[in-house]
Amino acid sequence: MSPTRRMFIFIALPLVILFAGLAIYLSTGHKSSPASPETSSNATNTQAACSPTALKSPVDVSLVTSVLYPGQVRGGDFKPHGGFRLNNTDNNLANVVAPLAAKVTGGSRYIEMDELQYMFDFKTDCGLEYRFDHLKTLSPKLQAAADKLPEAEVDNSRTSRVSNVSVEAGEIIATAVGFENSPPGAPEGPNASFDFGLYDKRQKNAASEDSSWVAAHKEEGDQAIYAVCWLDWLPAAESAVLKALPGGDSTSGKTSDYCR
Questions:
Q1: How would DSSP label each residue in 148-173?
Q2: Which residues does residue 197 pair with via DSSP β-bridges, in sequence order?
Q3: Which residue has the higher pLDDT, 239 or 21?
Q4: Is 50 or 128 the better-scoring residue by pLDDT?
């Protein structure tokens, strides 16, 4: 076999085959398959379920007697979260529900004022996170998760990881809140209240645009810069009811770095 023919077989011929195959591939108009209607529908439903307008009130607003506003100083410390006071409930009884479908990511059981308290963190699929604190009696699902947490210690509310627990929007997560006794200096009787914080991890809040504000609240970490005024995220009718109520903190009232 001549050198010229050998060169054609081993070099030129493979190149001819390669380019021919490429031409056939391109001529078929190869394109990625479009998302199926079912896939597109699921994505739309997930986005809709996570939109601010889908937020449910964590508690029946008719039971609320005053509102703890997020983004204010209470007890001498800045609180990114807010909360609800329910002074007219019997035996601290009130159903607390999940405002959005979410996974439970963390929790804590601890002792405060000689009473057992529960706190849980939740994470949605769309960048929103929320936290409840001062839950007293949990749903069976959340109680099972709490039983796996480290033993309660006095004033140690540090959270531990929770896995494989999810809740649906509107699902009851607690049936009683707060304390059986009020703190010293407060009117005698039960303190039926609980904390609620909502955090939009998709973007920092308006307050965080002020660098001096961020520096002053660095101890609160990400919660301070991602917390939102959840009163503005509730359905209009529920928001109006809550905003008409007095502020739950006797000093800060309705002042808030998040609510305008």
A1: TSPPPEET----EE--S-EE-TT-EE
A2: 131
A3: 239
A4: 128
Q: CATH number of the domain at 56-243, out of 3.40.50.720, 1.10.10.10, 1.20.1260.10, 2.70.70.10?
A: 2.70.70.10
- Which residue ranges make up each domain of the chain? 56-243
Phi and psi at residue 110, to the nearest 5°: -150, 170
Distances (CA, A) of 23 to 15, 26, 32, 33: 12, 5, 18, 20
Strand partners, 64: none
Q: Which two tokens stand for residue 16?
A: 């001819």
Report the pLDDT value the prediction gives residue 39, as an integer from 0 to 100.
38
How many whole angstroms separate alpha carbon 45 and alpha carbon 48? 5
Euclidean distance between CA atoms 80 and 73, whole angstroms: 9
How many residues would you count in the chain? 260
119 to 46, 76, 104, 148: CA distances (angstroms): 26, 21, 11, 13
Prediction pTM value: 0.80
pLDDT band, residue 188 (cuts 50/70/90): low
Q: Assess whether pLDDT exceeds 70 at residue 135.
A: yes
- Token readout for 58 is 């964590």
Q: Is 95 within 8 Å of 175 (Cβ atoms)?
A: yes
Q: Which long-range contacts (CB under 8 A, 24 or more apart) does 46-53 make?
A: 46/125, 46/126, 47/126, 49/100, 49/101, 49/126, 49/169, 50/100, 50/124, 50/125, 50/126, 50/127, 50/128, 52/233, 53/235
